[in-house]
Write a structure and sequence with these properties.
Length: 439
Amino acid sequence: MNMKRAVCTLVTITTMALAGCGGGGGGSSPMSNNNMNDMPTTPTTPTPPGNTGGGNSMPTTFANLTSTTAANAQRAAAQVADASPRFGSITQSSNTINNITQDQVTVTTEYGATQNAYSIQNGSTWSISTADGNPRRIDTTADDTGGFRGSELNKQVNGGTLWVDVYSDIKAPETSAGSGTYDFSFPGINVGGRFVQQNSNTSLPAVLNGVAGRAQCTSCSFVYTTGQLEMTMGSMTFTPSDGSSPTTLTTGGNTQTTPDADYLSGGIWLFVPTNAASADDYVVGAFGDGSDPFTQSALPALIGTARYIGEATGIYSATENDATEIGYFDANATLDADFGDGNGLGTINGYLNGIEVDGVSRGGRLTLGTADIGASNSGFFEGRLSGSSQGTSYTGRWGGAFFGNGETDNKPGSVGGTFGGRSADSSQSFVGVFGAYKQ
């Protein structure tokens, strides 16, 4: 995902908690330095870390960990690499039974001019939204063409504190001009010819573009024939019964609003138990989702190949000489789908390169090994991860699904998922989420 941002390397010293770090380690983001408050070993309230530097904020979810908390979080992060992802969205976490992820995170997103609204739920285990606490916006860089914006959320939940960094590429609703004539019907009115209403008040069940709802107007005028409405004065508000955004019908048709219905969302989370010394209760995970899952029944008919290019983000952790480092990383993501010749669903593979940790290039490449496109759940697939960075080899697992219907070639418009990789001794690991678009 295109979420590059300047962040600080988070090195936990064995004798004291982190007390802050300077922003800016590379990249072109105009982010200012931020002083961060220590997160207590046993938090009493989920207070977000302080941002006293002004300017754009940076993600600080993992910034305020004591030495014990950071070491336990690093251990949990390494366990993610051995976990099989789970669909529903795609979820991959350290909470496993026989290496099968038990968490099942879903996320919905609403566009906001200054900060998106998120609602995230992990089955019956926990839920969090931008209505909880004091969400902090995570800005992207000025040259970020992908349009991803993020928020840092936190909340006191049963047994501990939950920290989530979530991102989405949702766009602002589109407002389009129309002719003033609409594909429209009043199901309760059977009209053989023209029905003219002058300067009237109306509140009736209606159908607009095949969607049922209710039409209301005050002192408006219109001409209605079966299947068509023409506004001649004032405006009419059509409210869909499915909860989607209302549409204003006018003489010029210039306020028809269409929400973005095809977006990707995803992120990472950390659960710190109240008893922070209990390493087995820590959970680190990643989740990836989309608002327009690809229609499973359309997959068998696809043939040929498609390349998807995007970006990935997540956390990098390492422990050496009793000191733990936890930082944010970004990478480029490339995936190649081979839908075959119509005799099967095909395969997908890819790689992550251009890896940067806190804005500093690490080089190397993580390979997303070939995975069979699944026969259910938007082609859900999972495979093995391998590769190296700065001389350290990594192994793990990855998974994903297809999103985006309506492309001219009928192939999925995007792909999203999660991954985890760890070193042989589990002292270093990557946990993240990716999103990529058909080229």
